[in-house]
Write a structure and sequence with these properties.
The complex is a heterodimer of chains A (about 900) and B (about 325). With about 900 residues, chain A is of the alpha+beta class. Among the domains of chain A are: about 30 residues, no CATH class; about 160 residues, no CATH class; about 130 residues, no CATH class. Chain A is built from 28 helices and 36 strands. Helices cover about 30% and strands about 30% of the residues of chain B. In chain B, a hairpin with a 3-residue loop joins β2 and β3. The two termini of chain B are about 35 Å apart. The chains are: A alpha+beta (about 900), B alpha+beta (about 325). Chain B: One of its GO terms (molecular function) is identical protein binding.
Chain lengths: ~900, ~325
């Protein structure tokens, strides 16, 4: 047989002492290593703590269970239950206190010998020690001993009868008469005193859990169950008890003792220990045999299970305090979530269970997390400057952009990137792309030039360059062009077709229309000071002289880069001789140029015709420029391959420049998806996809998800006006999103909807606008139900029938206000709306009501004490957006 | 009071003394290696006539078929009485005496044959499986009936079988069978299952090899000395009944002993094998003991029944039983 498995007990009062018990008892003191060096003989338990062995007690053989005296004095008094059922009091490392000395070695002997399974000190009346024993046919299994009872020579048992126990009485103090005997002809496997009353004892008997009441020992409350081992009371919730059987833990509520309130998931091997954490509510630790983890069940959020059949949710997790198998563990009595575990070979580890961290983002930028008893809040520091602005949290950015009406400019679409702050190159590219796609001239041009596109199922209108290139039907013409301004003929082949022209327009290199002159584009680049880019575009259009001129201009410009002159000089030395020194030097030195456009210029000049990888795969060059270049110089077979490759690259990276290639198609949604995954910017995604409002794309669940999330975000920020604006904007671009009327005003008499019956009668003319406001008072003054002609209710304040427009404030009506009322615009105002309290059913014109409640709290109807406005929880919220 | 109907389906068998070596392999496995079998209920009792084995169906598979092995035809179920309320009174008589009036007498009145097995821990009342409805009917008025199913205890309702059963008139039960009282004294004890391996060889010696060597046959029989040894391993609990002399061969602190060191004397019932059908034998013995408030163990074997009573009470027991015997005749 293997030796007994070690168990561990914390001292109930000395927070630095614990006892390991296996075949003997060893008292350890735990101390932090701190700055001082570890003492000799100290066993390290963790990085910070070590344990020193203080005392060993091997006086008590056949140890089966141990319990530590619960009171301060005498300290270190232990009760040991033995294999033959005897309970012995012993102590460890004790100063020779007189009271304690008297108790040392005192034995409590049951009538019939059998194993002692468990011991429990009464926490209140600490003289009482309950012992749980195995079954005997004629004896009791729960014995409660009074440790203060004096030794009395056993008068009841004649001396000659003590035959088999001879030699046991020499130790002196033997007590054979227990205070209480309970559980006849039964076995007791676990015990605990109930904190509810000092005379209540919960016992895990052979096949049931029993509560013994010492005030009336003939009564017991019991429930039949297998889960009878290791009964233990939750220190924070005195009616909650855990017990286990093999691999399963049952949690009981003593107020509803008939069955377990819940059973925890069964483990593959039997459990050896179950213990509630003494420092945190609802945390139960369990240990399985031969396991290297402690399994924790967090019942923190359990609703009190009174008469509730629903099983509460439990968070289960494992912690691994050490590398080895765990023999036993014990929670520290006061240090938060701390335990010491001991391995079967007595290796010890000091371990603190880390609290689960729960984390919550606000809809703004702050982040809150809770760990143990601490709450941490973290908010963004707003640095100044463009770099800091780009680094900021997307929530901050979106919030600012929402306030600057980002996305709402439908006329000059490109301007939205300025509204977004104007410092994000991807957004800039995106909105320019959308601008070109949606531009009226562009549409007109497409309809003119490519009427066949509209026969296709997918209109080319919102397609990107990828589809345009693929749809190429008209022939491509090759042209070998000379360098303009240079005498030498060029080897460069340039491709032209209608689709390629359209693509160049989308790239922004040429204007709409048949004109393929790039000059206006160069001019605009010069204006913006993008000299290198302008030079590169000029060069790609085979105008080397113009390129040099641009560089020269750039160098001489105020604060210009003088190096541009040097580049211009190098450029002018261009030669197309394959083996010239110029070529050789340029192709190697170009890589040292920091500006990507300068770099690709030389790459273009030094590469073989048709092999322009140096230009096409220079990722620092804007996608639109690379695509435009590809449309000019790649053949019909090369071009789609390049575009496909680039598209996939963009999609993977979630780069918004790629929208140029994908357009607002399914591909575009894919690209946007990875952009949203990367940035969380649902705002841009929503606006962008709304712009391309071609049914299919908008129906995509992802798009709907972004839009809904953006709306929720606006709600969370209390940007209700912005939300409303967004909804209006959305319903303009996507009429299908317009919500159906959900609220109708019905007549008190006939029950028909006033607005409905009105619109169903075409001869009545105008329908009501929402909430039953009449169209025009001059034409048909609707103050009565159009169905039954009965009058509508009156406003509680002006006493006019509803449907009558508001005449400013009651009592202060002015004649000039009346004039304005004739205008339809004025009528549709919110002031004229019906409003009523859902509680008292009084109401009137919204304007009057708002006015009334601004300085009253009770309903305007006399004798009605309803506090209508206070019942309306949302009515008291104030929007955060200014408009 | 609760009456637990345990889930073991038991077989009662007898192994002839000369055939014991055929069965030793299986018996050793059942007695000392409980983890190697799925047996939960095993009892072996040696009497001068034979070995009586009570074992559940799982354990029965370990025994070989042999001409030396005779098996009682019925399947038996074990009943166990658990006192529901805890009582602080410790002067209450124990064992069979306690349940004599509440269980054994009513069963005898209804002509239900019982087979008793007392252990250190408790008393098992074995009844035939086919008698169970009648047993439940008979005892439902006195007891809360609970049945153990897959280790869980569940309440059972008494079956509605009252029709046709006439409540028998309570009659005096005279003692029919001859009694004898051997001279040796017995010890009822137990030991911790963890320490079982350390005394396994000793126990094997006691169980299988004690005949012939230690006590020359004939000499002891004449002086009224009887060989009787019982070992049981039931649901993890070990119980031993052995001659007081034999306990001295065990090391100190292995056997559980009572604080008072009580010893028991035996009353052996039956002149010829009792069989399994006759009822009322246990009742005949236990009722007078209950009346006299004398605690007792009762162990039925294949052929005879054995009651153990405290040594100091043996004379009054014999007296009480003799009185009963004479009134019967």
């Amino acid at each position: 047989m293997s030796g007994p498995k070690p168990d561990i007990l914390w001292s109930p009062h000395h927070v630095d002492r614990y006892v390991i018990c296996d075949s003997e008892l060893s008292l350890y003191r735990i101390e932090s290593l701190g700055s001082t060096e570890a003492k000799a003989g100290a066993v390290p338990l963790s990085e910070e703590t070590a344990a020193t062995l203080l005392a060993i007690n091997s006086d008590t053989p056949y140890m089966k269970c141990v319990a530590w005296y619960p009171k301060h004095e005498p300290e270190c008094l232990l009760a040991v239950g033995q294999a033959n059922g005897r309970v012995v009091l012993t102590s460890l490392g004790q100063s020779h206190n007189s009271k304690c000395k008297e108790l040392m070695g005192k034995e409590f002997v049951p009538k019939h010998a059998r194993q002692c399974n468990t011991l429990a000190w009464n926490p209140v009346d600490s003289n009482w020690l309950a012992a749980g024993l195995d079954k005997h046919r004629a004896d009791f299994s729960v014995l409660i001993w009074d440790i203060s009872s004096k030794f009395t020579p056993e008068a009841s048992v004649p001396a000659e009868k003590i035959r088999l126990s001879s030699g046991d009485t020499d130790s002196g103090v033997v007590v054979t008469k227990p205070l209480y005997e309970l559980g006849q002809n039964d076995a007791c496997l676990s015990l605990c005193w109930l904190p509810r009353d000092q005379k209540l004892l919960l016992a895990g008997m052979h096949r049931n859990l029993a509560i013994f009441d010492l005030r009336n020992t003939s009564q017991k409350m019991f429930v039949n169950t297998k889960a009878i081992q290791g009964v233990t009371v939750d220190p924070y919730f005195h009616d909650r008890v855990a017990s286990f059987f093999e691999g399963q833990v049952a949690i009981w509520d003593l107020r509803k003792f008939e069955k377990p309130v819940l059973t925890l998931s069964e483990q593959p091997k039997p459990l050896t220990k179950v213990a509630w954490c003494p420092t945190r509510t609802g945390l139960l630790a369990t240990l399985m045999r031969d396991s290297d983890v402690v399994r924790l069940y967090d019942m923190q959020h359990t609703p009190t299970p009174i008469g509730d059949e629903t099983e509460p949710t439990i968070i289960e997790r494992c912690v691994q305090p050490c590398e080895t198998i765990i023999g036993s563990f014990a929670w520290h009595p006061s240090a938060q979530n701390r335990m010491v575990v001991v391995s079967p070979n007595r290796g010890m580890t000091d371990f603190t269970v880390f609290e689960r961290i729960s984390l919550a983002w606000s809809s703004g930028t702050s982040l809150v997390w809770a760990c143990g008893r601490h709450l941490y809040e973290c908010s963004e520091e707003c640095g100044a400057g463009a770099a800091a602005a780009a680094e900021r949290d997307v929530a901050t950015k979106m919030r600012e952009r929402a306030q600057s009406r980002y996305g709402h400019d439908t006329v000059q679409v490109w301007k939205n990137h300025v509204l977004a702050g104007g410092n994000d190159p991807q957004l800039k590219s995106l909105w320019y792309t959308l601008h070109y796609i949606l531009h009226d001239h562009h549409r007109y041009y497409i309809i003119q030039c490519f009427p066949y596109f509209f026969g296709n199922k997918q209109p080319l209108l919102y397609s990107g360059i990828k589809n345009i290139v693929k749809s190429s039907t008209s022939g491509t013409t090759e042209s070998r062009r000379c360098w303009s301004g240079s005498e030498r003929p060029a080897e460069v082949v340039r491709y032209l077709s209608e689709e390629r022209g359209l693509a160049l327009q989308l790239c922004g290199w040429i204007r709409c229309g048949p004109d393929i002159n790039v000059e206006p584009f160069l001019k605009s680049l010069e204006q913006e000071g993008e000299w290198e880019r302008a030079a590169a575009v000029a060069l790609f259009n085979l105008d080397i002289r113009r390129a040099i001129q641009i560089l020269h201009k750039g160098a001489s410009f105020d604060k210009g880069d003088l190096n541009l002159n040097v580049v211009a000089m190098a450029l002018s030395g261009y030669t197309d001789e394959k083996s010239s020194l110029w070529r050789e030097m340029c192709s190697s030195l170009r890589l040292q140029l920091s500006n990507p456009y300068l770099c690709v210029m030389f790459a273009f000049l030094t590469s073989e015709p048709g092999a322009y990888d140096g230009v096409l795969y220079e990722s620092r060059v804007a996608v639109r420029d690379r695509v435009a270049f590809a449309c000019m110089f790649l053949s019909d077979s090369q071009l789609p391959r390049y575009i496909d490759k680039l598209t996939n690259e963009m999609k993977e990276a979630g780069n918004l420049e790629g929208i140029l290639l994908t357009g607002l198609t399914k591909d575009g949604v894919d690209l946007m998806e990875s952009y949203v995954d990367r940035t969380g910017d649902v705002q841009t995604a929503s606006f962008c996809m709304l712009k391309g409002s071609s049914g299919e794309v908008l129906k995509d669940p992802r798009v709907q998800c972004w839009i809904e999330n953006y709306r929720n975000l606006l709600d969370a920020w209390s940007f209700w006006h912005k939300r409303a604006e967004f909804d209006i904007h959305r319903s303009k671009l996507d009429p299908s999103s317009k919500p159906l009327a959900q609220v109708f005003v019905s007549c008190n008499f006939c029950g028909k909807s006033i607005s409905y019956s009105c619109s169903s009668m075409p001869h009545q003319g105008r329908g009501f606008s929402q909430y039953g406001v009449s169209g025009s008072p001059t034409k048909s003054k609707v103050t009565s139900c159009p169905g039954c002609r009965k009058p509508l209710p009156r406003c509680a304040l002006c006493l006019m029938n509803m449907g009558t427009p508001v005449s400013s404030c009651p009592g202060t009506g002015k004649s000039d206000e009346k004039v304005d009322l004739s205008k339809d615009k004025k009528l549709a105002q919110f002031n004229n709306w019906f409003t009523w309290c859902h509680n008292c059913r009084h109401g009137g014109h919204a304007g009057h009501m708002l006015n009334w409640f601004s300085d009253h709290s009770e309903c305007p109807v006399s004798a009605c004490t309803c506090r209508c406005m206070q019942l309306d929880t949302t009515g008291n919220l104030v929007p955060s957006d200014s408009s | 009071m609760e009456l637990h109907i345990l889930e073991h389906s038991l077989k009662v068998a007898s192994i002839a003394k000369e055939g014991i070596q055929i069965c030793t392999h299986g018996l050793i496995k059942l007695a000392f290696l409980p983890s190697k079998t799925r047996c939960k209920f095993f009892s072996l009792t040696e009497t001068p006539e034979d070995y009586t084995i009570i074992v559940d169906e799982e354990g029965f598979k370990e025994l070989p078929e042999s001409e030396h092995l005779s098996v009682a035809e019925a399947t038996w179920l074990a009943l166990n009485v658990v006192s529901g309320g805890g009582s602080s009174s410790s002067s209450q008589p124990i064992g069979v005496t306690k349940i004599a009036k509440s269980v054994i007498a009513p069963l005898a009145d209804h002509n239900i044959s019982v087979f008793m097995l007392s252990t250190y821990q408790t008393d098992f009342i074995l009844v035939r499986e086919r008698d169970l409805p009648m047993v439940m009917h008979t005892l439902s008025s006195e007891f809360t009936l609970l049945r153990v199913v897959n280790g869980e205890t569940v309440a059972v309702n008494s079956l509605g079988v009252t029709n046709g059963f006439v409540k028998p008139k309570l009659v005096q039960r005279p003692i029919i069978h001859p009694l004898s009282s051997p001279s040796n004294m017995f010890c009822v004890t137990s030991l911790n299952p963890d320490t079982l391996p350390s005394v396994a060889t000793l126990l094997m010696d006691v169980m299988f090899y004690s005949s012939g060597v230690k006590e020359p046959a004939g000499a002891s029989d004449d002086s009224g000395h009887i060989r009787f040894f019982s070992f049981s391993l039931i649901e993890g609990y070990i119980s031993l009944v052995m001659d007081e002399q034999m306990t001295r061969r065990f090391p100190n602190n292995v056997l559980f002993t009572s604080a008072s060191g009580e010893l028991w004397k035996m009353v052996r019932i039956g002149g010829q094998p009792l069989g399994f059908d006759e009822c009322g034998i246990v009742a005949q013995i236990s009722e007078p003991l209950a009346t006299a408030d004398i605690p007792a163990y009762y162990i039925s074997t294949f052929k005879f029944d054995h009651a153990l009573v405290p040594e100091e009470n043996i004379q009054s027991v014999i007296g009480a039983l003799r009185t009963n015997e004479s009134t019967g005749q």
